[in-house]
């Protein structure tokens, strides 16, 4: 039996370590399109998380019944079912939000994060693990969409969650709420996140090297002292 | 005249990739080389036109008469998936050179959100058959245009000294941002 990762780790990894947007580079379309404001970003992330959790659960529950050849089609039908539920509920309960998200709620069906988790995780793990994995990944999406939406909303319309926070003297950068601003902001965020990862890796490598180096350095000093 | 406006709007002013953010995954993934970008664009355009026709017919003659509009998401996605499979088989049978050129890109198109987006826009905006075809073709041309432009720029970028953390996807997105800004210049023409 192969060694299992702890349940907490299964949950936490999705938030940063394998963050769907920053690390797996999946699901850019909704990320870019709906993040005009922080609120839109959160709504989209919650809708995606809902679909992600339930489709992962169901797929994990019936993973042994699905024949390998038609698994992708099966996943898509399961995902489409939950997306339809979200779409109809949002239309009924939050008509304005649903209007501002436009076709992007139905487009959750082809969000590669969901199919990606189904194929890479839920089809191989038990329901509890799949649930935690989906929840973690969902929180990862929530994090990215909120930050992205927040940045664009503050710079593009001086507001956060609809409340003005920057003084009137600040001229809003209209470009930030236009499509171009979405590409630029995500590109910069992704670049900084990659730079941080590179730096962390380099530091880890150096500290690993240092583990062996001090002993040598100390003996050198001793020898130097003796001489 | 109306058809012409739909075409220009879908291809340039409201470009699927640069204004609606549809089809970003292949846009980032396949835009390394100009030749593969053109092949991908052609394959996508073809599937888009066929999808436009089929999804219009299904929506107008099956879903609406039987009051099944709420089933549009699953039915569209199934139609697209089987259509892509079908197109792949036909091309393989009819033209081997074309199949070799487009082959590997065809399965990728199923998960291209631009295709499903197209089908959803058609039902949302209540286009008729002719308008749907023109809209699908325009969207495909726009997708090809954006993809090819991007591929050309990325071929040049390989020679540029990009900071390590920004190589790959980040610089592609930033370039896309600049392209989107340039495309905003077309906003006045319709």
Structural summary, described in words:
- Chain A is an all-alpha fold.
- In chain A, 69% of the residues lie in helices and 2% in strands.
- A two-stranded antiparallel sheet of chain A has the order 1-2.
- The N and C termini of chain A lie far apart (57 Å).
- With 190 residues, chain B is mostly helical.
- The chains are: A mainly alpha (227), B mainly alpha (190).
- Chains A and B meet through helix 2, helix 4 and helix 8 of A and helix 2, helix 4, helix 7 and helix 9 of B.
Features:
heterodimer; A: 227 residues; mainly alpha; B: 190 residues; 9 helices; 74% helix; globular
What is the overall shape of chain A?
flat
Q: Tell me about the largest β-sheet of chain A.
A: 2 strands, antiparallel
Number of β-strand runs of chain A:
2
CA radius of gyration of chain B: 17 Å
Main sheet summary of chain B: none
Portion of residues within helices of chain A: 55-70%
Largest interface: A-B, 44 and 42 residues
Tell me what portion of residues of chain B adopts beta-strand conformation. under 5%
Can you give the helix content of chain B as a percent range? over 70%
| Pattern of helices and strands of chain B | HHHHHHHHH
Strand content of chain A: under 5%
As a whole number of angstroms, the C-alpha radius of gyration of chain A is 23 Å
Would you identify the regions of chain A where 5 or more consecutive residues have pLDDT less than 50? Answer: none
Distance between the termini of chain B: 11 Å
Biggest sheet strand order of chain A reads 1-2
């Amino acid at each position: 039996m192969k060694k299992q990762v702890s349940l907490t780790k299964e949950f936490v990894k999705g938030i940063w370590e394998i963050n769907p947007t920053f690390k797996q580079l999946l699901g850019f379309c909704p990320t870019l399109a709906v993040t005009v404001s922080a609120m839109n970003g959160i709504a989209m992330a919650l809708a995606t998380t809902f679909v992600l959790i339930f489709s992962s659960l169901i797929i994990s529950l019936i993973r042994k019944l699905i024949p390998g050849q038609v698994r992708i089609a099966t996943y898509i039908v399961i995902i489409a079912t939950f997306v339809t539920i979200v779409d109809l509920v949002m239309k009924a309960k939050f008509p304005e939000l649903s209007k501002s998200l436009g076709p992007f709620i139905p487009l959750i069906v082809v969000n590669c994060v969901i199919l990606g988790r189904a194929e890479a995780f839920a089809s191989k793990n038990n329901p509890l693990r799949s649930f935690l994995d989906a929840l973690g990944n969902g929180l990862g999406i929530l994090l990215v969409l909120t930050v992205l939406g927040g940045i664009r909303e503050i710079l593009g319309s001086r507001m956060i969650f609809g409340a003005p926070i920057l003084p009137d003297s600040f001229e809003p950068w209209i470009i930030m709420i236009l499509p171009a601003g979405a590409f630029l902001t995500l590109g910069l965020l992704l670049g900084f996140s990659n730079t941080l990862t590179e730096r962390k890796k380099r530091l880890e490598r150096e500290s690993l090297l240092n583990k062996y180096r001090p002993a040598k350095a100390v003996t050198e000093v001793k020898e130097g002292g003796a001489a | 005249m109306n058809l012409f406006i739909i075409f220009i709007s879908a291809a340039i002013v409201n470009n699927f990739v640069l204004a609606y953010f549809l089809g970003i995954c292949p846009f980032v993934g396949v835009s390394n080389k100009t030749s593969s970008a053109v092949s991908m664009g052609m394959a996508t355009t073809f599937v888009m036109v066929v999808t436009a026709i089929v999804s219009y017919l299904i929506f107008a003659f099956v879903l609406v008469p039987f009051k099944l509009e709420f089933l549009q998401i699953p039915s569209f996605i199934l139609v697209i998936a089987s259509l892509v499979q079908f197109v792949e088989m036909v091309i393989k049978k009819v033209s081997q050179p074309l199949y070799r050129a487009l082959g590997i890109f065809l399965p990728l198109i199923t998960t291209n959100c631009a295709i499903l987006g197209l089908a959803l826009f058609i039902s949302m905006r209540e286009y008729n058959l002719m308008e749907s075809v023109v809209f699908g073709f325009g969207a495909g041309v726009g997708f090809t245009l954006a993809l090819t432009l991007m591929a050309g720029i990325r071929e040049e970028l390989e020679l540029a000294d990009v900071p390590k953390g920004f190589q790959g996807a980040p610089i592609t997105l930033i370039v896309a941002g600049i392209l989107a800004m340039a495309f905003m210049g077309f906003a006045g023409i319709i």
